[in-house]
Write a structure and sequence with these properties.
Elements lengths: L1 H13 L9 H21 L7 H18 L12 H20 L8 H22 L9 H14 L6 H17 L6 H23 L14 E2 L5 H8 L6 E7 L7 E6 L1 E2 L4 E2 L25 E11 L2 E2 L9 E5 L5 E3 L6 E3 L8 E10 L2 H6 L20 H11 L5 H13 L4 E2 L3 H5 L6 H10 L1 E2 L1 H14 L4 E7 L3 E4 L6 E6 L3 E9 L3 E4 L62 H18 L1 H14 L4 H14 L10 H10 L6 H15 L4 H8 L3 H13 L3 H9 L16
Parallel strand pairs: 1-7, 12-13
Antiparallel strand pairs: 2-6, 2-16, 3-14, 4-5, 6-11, 8-11, 9-10, 14-17, 15-16, 17-18
Helix pairs in contact: 1-2, 1-5, 1-6, 1-7, 2-3, 2-5, 3-5, 4-5, 6-7, 6-8, 6-16, 7-8, 11-14, 12-15, 14-15, 17-18, 18-20, 18-22, 20-21, 20-22
Length: 723
Amino acid sequence: MTAALALALTVAVTGLSSALEGWDWWLLAVFTAFVALGVAGWVRGLTRFRVIPPLAALAAVLVLLTLRFAADTAIFWVIPTFDSVDRFGELTLAGQLGIAQSIVPAAATEGMLFIIALGIGVVAVTLDTVALPLRSPALSGIPLLVVVAIPSVVQRELSSVFTFVFTASAWLLVLWVDRRRPQPGSAVTVGAFVVVGALIAAPVLAGLQPDSSGTRAAAGLQVGVNPMVNLGNDLRRADPFVALTYTTSRESGHYLRMVTLDQFDGLQWEPTGVVVDRDNTMDRIAEPPGLSDAVVRESVTTDVEVGSTVGRWLPVPYPPVEVDGLVGDWFWEPDGLSIRADNTYIRWQEYTVESAWLRPTAEQLRAVGQRVPEPVQQYTHLPVDVADNIRAATDEVTGGLSTAYEKAIALQDYFRNGDFDYSEDAPVEDGYDGDGLAVISKFLEVRKGYCVHFASSMAVMARLAGIPARVAVGFLPGVVETDEQTREDYYLVTSHDMHAWPELFFEGVGWVPFEPTPGRGVLPNYEAPVVDDPATPNVDESRPVPASTGAPAPTVRDGDLPSERPGPDGADVVDWAPVLWTIGITAASLLVVFAPASWRRFIRSRRLLSHSPEQFWQELRDTATDFGIPAPDTETARAFATRLEEIGEVRGEQLDRLRDAVELHSYAEHAGALLVREIAVGPADAREVIARIESGHGLLQRLRALLLPLSLIPRRTDETRSI
């Protein structure tokens, strides 16, 4: 039985793989389940007390959680202390935040791993308790159903019929293994109930999920490991979400970069694999790679409040010098100086960024020539199968130019000179959406696309021209709004401001941004002289500068804002993700709590509908058992009825008719059928006696009998059953 339960729980847990990345969480969950079930089975062989094995299993789960998550706070690494309890509380809160804000499939954080291990441990102990001490293996299907229904609660598309079917099959194996009290009819009935209920629960629970249109509870903006993947969908939203707001010491807004994509395999741009370095703290961010002291820089302070945006990459001006006010563990990666969270998310973060405003001149950029330092030569690599039209376009634009800067400006002008059109829909309609070589080749022919196509195309063409290049992803500066209460200006950045742009490397200057996307962003002008006023941006005033939110700019009204925390206008708003999770967890808990009562009521209804005196009498015995009145199988009907009358529980003609009918039915044999019909007992008699037994007890006793019916615990099979 223990092995069958372990198999069923393993199958059910595997269904969570549609919502979680990797397999570290699965190994931890399965190991926790095996430890709980194994310890319970081992202890059961050492004692006859039924309550000890489940308690031992719970203790084993606690020891395992302590060793895995709080060993430094425990005695001998396994005995929890009050500090361990505090650690568990912190992990629970962090896990709840991670669950509410994760992008599926999500990478399990420490907090999420703790909740998974704790939850599976409790489920394993529940399965063992129901199937063995309570001897009701059929009820084990309920906690299994809770586990397999979790992906459906997270997102509609994550539900899998195969998971339900395989888990139901493993649960039927549990019923087959249990041969001590065979009830094939009950097994089939409960089996059908669980399987059908599971299949119905998936779409019903999934229907609670918020949609991306914002018409119901808004999920907000979600930024994954590679923000380029969903960038087009974010731009095509009918109603923009508020991603963040910020104020800055500059007189103009600036780009907020999240991550750089520097690895290109011909299919897509990706960030370099992130290695967590906890020494890279926010109070000492390194100097930008390749930057010399010759470049003019000014210190800028930016206060950022992130809204309903989920992700691990922090939006900051480049290059950041110091970040203060963040909650959680954050680190910066050395190449792109991107800032990433290890165990939390950017959602609702409020922080201050000290950054450097770099203002290189055209002379400095021209002076580099075509030199490519050894550390950045890898950023000129491309696959060998670059399409001919991409090579031809690169040669046409950059041919005859002698410096990397001249080639970069020529590439930027090539995309912005009017021959290309900005379109978020054309790539989808014509089937070339993405950032791979095949997409770029098609894009150069159609000449319609959005920032992903312009940025990736210029980066590839720059590499073909021998210039180290990568793609940055983040937000445009946004639009200026005025707080109605404070009358202070701030920048509002929405999901329509998600943006990608290329960065090219120049020795002595470092990574320099360019803007090839027409109709979007701010066009940099490195030809403009550097002035003494640091508030004057290096923007080409001779060219029209489009609004940072695009052309045409989306209108964001107060009524369009998604449900979130109080925004700049002070309106109280609600984040529905934790609410939905609370509802789901509460519903699952209620399902487990009321499962015994539901099953007990099902048994009673079946007996009363049978019109059998023996079934009536058996229900009377079980009702007495639920209230703590002994009803041994070896006691005759007359003796049991007499004892009920003596203790004052119940008396009357209904009890007498039931007793006489059972005796005649049991002992008269052939003549019994006629005599029983003459007595004429029915369900009403049984219900009246049951009601009198229940009315003889207080509210707490009735509640205990309802939620914890003792009659569900099977009697020993070696006892002789008689009426």
